[in-house]
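Feature request disguised as a bug: please show the residue count (320) next to Aldo/keto reductase in the output. Example input:
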Amino acid sequence: MSFPLRPLGRSALQVSPLCFGGNVFGWTADEAMSFSLLDAWLDAGMNFVDTADVYSRWVPGHAGGESETIIGNWLRKNAGRRDRLVLATKVGKDMGDGRVGLHPRYIRQAVDASLKRLQTDYIDLYQSHDDDPDIPFEDVMGTFSDLIREGKVRAVGASNYSAGRLAAALECSEKHRLARYESLQPLYNLYDRAVFEKELQPLCEQHGVGVINFYALAAGFLAGKYRTEADVNKSARGPKTVGLYLNPRGLRILGALDAVAARLNASQSEVAIAWLLTRKAIAAPIASASNLAQLQSLVRAASLVLDDEALKTLDAASAE
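Example output, currently without the count:
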């Protein structure tokens, strides 16, 4: 199977319509399963994988770097597949011992650490995991420009930036002729629509910034896993979703997903991802899978066509 590749912002990167979220590697998927997932992802015609240096520091006993290490071990075993992979990682979240933020000196330390864990000479997309208002944009983007010139990084992106701060970063890059953020990784899904659509989407469209949104399935809520308080402990992510999504509007969205999924002979998660793929600002939603059955469902979602009736049903249910 193959999927048409999409440009990521104004960069030279060409990415598949979905991005695999590598937060699961070393967390809900052990190394053997992670290897199988990476193999299956490329075999399915996808090429885009996103991770971060901090994954999965939140797990007891983990220090961060576990996901990158597993990807690096897979790359060592599959050296011939590196050119087929668009590999994204991030810097800036707290790694402990003062390793946090976007100071130029720390970015340089962090990128070298990521390259070592990933066992590769270059990172396709290097992203600021968080904004760091204490560091001038000239310093941040100047450092990223240096990394691109040195061949360690091909393009840079931002994650968790407000519209105002992203606009300021883009303006700085243009004014000083520095590398610019070619992608944005915001929260966006069928439930979480308002902030992105009102503030970030117009900015990204105006400046040609590719959007690779996270929480495409609202941490599993849009897959229909969580419908009552009793469902909270079904997975590691459960407790994080209930307070946010298990409310009348969330249940209304699930009802719409149920109806569309039944009519199109698809799963709720496939419909939720297919909806994202109809949004013109989105380059590649990020979604995770902890087993091969979930991964194959993601692949099916990339081929699912939603008709006008389905789109109207989903938009009406998810209206704020």
